[in-house]
Fold this sequence. Notes:
It is a single chain. With 223 residues, this protein is of the alpha/beta class. The chain contains eight helices and seven strands. The strands form two sheets. A four-stranded mixed β-sheet has the order 1-5-3-6.
Amino acid sequence: MLLNIKYLVKENSGPGLSRNYGMNQATGDYFIILDSDCLLSHHYLDEVAQGLALKYTDAFGGPDAAHPSFTLIQKAISYAMTSYLTTGGLRNTESEVKKFQLRSFNMGISKETFFKTQGFAAQNFGEDIEFTNRLWSAGFTTQFLPRAIVYHKRRTSWKKFFNQVYNFGAARPVLGAMYPQMNGLNYWFPALFMVGFITSLLMMVLGYQLPIYFFLLYFSLFF
Length: 223
């Protein structure tokens, strides 16, 4: 396959507006969006083409995984972000209603969808979630392509991972105000988990050890 590649350079305008700039310059009918820290699986483009041929949608998303060459920290973070025991596997599964929340590290949208929705917003965090809700509100369709895998390198230290997750959390109230339907109970689970864990530690100091055993059991399951 011969690829006609253009490399564009511009001032940093954040992830969303930079992607919009690239799509405005593109000439194809369907755009694929990836993060700079992702590696494509060998048959990625074939899987996308087959998936859209079988069931065409205005946009698609795909899963991410850890490549064998990644560091132990990157593999651990990948597991934390994708496992059923940590995030319920929400990032890498199709929902019961056949609508998939797009993630900018591995997604595609049609040219028509991009121009009718005006692409991503200017915000630096949660821009892919905001875009998906705006896309659904406009009547466009999404799907999950389970075999269109990218290997996501993740962060290289726990500090960088903490900062990333913190920014994700900071974006949630903003997105919830924009789209009230996003304010589901599941978005409170991380906060409830931390409150419960800290409470169990305090209770252990006071001599009540039973609550901490539930957390130790949970930790042992995925370690």
